[in-house]
Structure formats: C-alpha cells, structure tokens
Amino acid sequence: KAGVTQTPRYLIKTRGQQVTLSCSPISGHRSVSWYQQTPGQGLQFLFEYFSETQRNKGNFPGRFSGRQFSNSRSEMNVSTLELGDSALYLCASSLTGYTEAFFGQGTRLTVV
Amino acid sequence: AQSVTQPDIHITVSEGASLELRCNYSYGATPYLFWYVQSPGQGLQLLLKYFSGDTLVQGIKGFEAEFKRSQSSFNLRKPSVHWSDAAEYFCAVGAGGSYIPTFGRGTSLIVHP
Question: Quick one: CA dihedral A72, A107, A55, B1, positive or negative?
Fold first, then answer.
C-alpha cells in the first residue's frame, strides 16, 4: 500500500511569507503528526491531529498551525516565516496515534 | 515529561565490525521505546520497538535492542555492520501509551570499508 506522501519535497520562501505543507497519510490512518527537524534542535514535535481535531501540541509559537481534513489528509501552515524556520518538516501517520507511526520523506523548507 | 539521551553524536566503525549505539531515557513508568533510522534526505524508518515482555527485541536489517530498566537504557546492537548501515539513528520514547515519540538528538553512524 502507498506510504505517507508529503508535498512538496522542496520549498524556498522569503522571510515574512507564509507556507503550507501537505501530508497524505496511509489509507485508513486517522492520526497525523508533524515534526520539525533541524541540525541544532533535532526532531521536535509540532502537533498531532486525529479525526480532524488537534489532540496534542508541542512547544511552537502560534505561527505554526495545522489542520486535518475528513479524509485524514493534513496541512501545516507557517506564517510570517523566519530564517530559523528553515528545516525538514516530517509528517507521520498512525492508525490511531496508539499504533506504529510511519514517516513520510519530508518537505525541505528553506527560508531566505 | 519524558526525554531521551543519545550520548554519542558520531560513531565510526569498520565494515564487518560489531555496533552498539547507546540510548538512555527518562520516564517514570514503563515507556514505549523505539529506534528509527534516517538515510540522507529521507524520512525515518522504524527499526524496532519495545512495549513490554521480552527485553531483547529483534528488528529489521539484523538489528536488536535490549531494554534495561535498572539502567534506563535501550541500546541498539548489530553483530556485523554493512556499509549500507551508514545513516543517522534515533532513539525515541513514547509515554502514557502514546506512540507519538520524543526523539533523542541522534547518532550518526559512519562505516569505513
């Protein structure tokens, strides 16, 4: 079966702009989590959505937001981009959030 | 809150040599423990996981890990490393029955021919 698909794979944005990243989970999975990966901070949990509701949230400013649609696809939005937002953003899907998580290949965001 | 420490930032081994990557966790109860591998430019792949039961866990690609409660450790081992094992390895802990892992900073494995 198809894995977790993240689009786009690469993105270059300018400071102050906003960006939307997309994640299509494995068919049947209802939990989608987002992570930010940077060399300095490692892998940090952003938030988790389950059945269109944000269920868990990490320690990120309000500029980072997300949503989940009825088909479980999820989007993550970052507004007013800063240079420090440059990172690999990873999405993971799980049947319920209490079962194994499968990761996508990530979206590499570069802010210039 | 739970946390994970991977004390080694880089590990260099020769192909064919044995490997042990260290992982220590902090959590009050029995955690869920994971090892993931990430190749350059790729997402994370789950190597193995521990929830309960047998403390020696077998994973994919010939890896195994041992949960030692007394040492709060979950070290990853492989008896003979292949050049294709060169990658970043992440230990992670899930708490409270959650599979949403908290990750360590990772250990970069370099394999010399």
Answer: positive
Query: Chain A residue closest to B98 (CA)?
Result: A98
pLDDT tens for each residue of B25-60: 998 777 889 999 999 878 899 999 998 889 999 999
Task: Give the pLDDT score at B68.
Answer: 95
Which one-letter amino acid corresponds to residue A110? T
Q: How many CB atoms lie within 10 A of CB A43?
A: 22
pLDDT category of residue B98 using cuts at 50, 70 and 90: low
Q: Would you call A56 and B100 a contact, using CB atoms and an 8 Å cutoff?
A: yes
DSSP category for residue B80: S
Which residue in the set A48, A97, A103 is minimally distant from B44, CB to CB? A103
Q: Which of A95, A105, A60, A79 is nearest to A18 (CA)?
A: A79
E strand segments, A10-106: 10-13, 19-24, 31-38, 42-50, 53-57, 64-68, 74-78, 87-94, 102-103
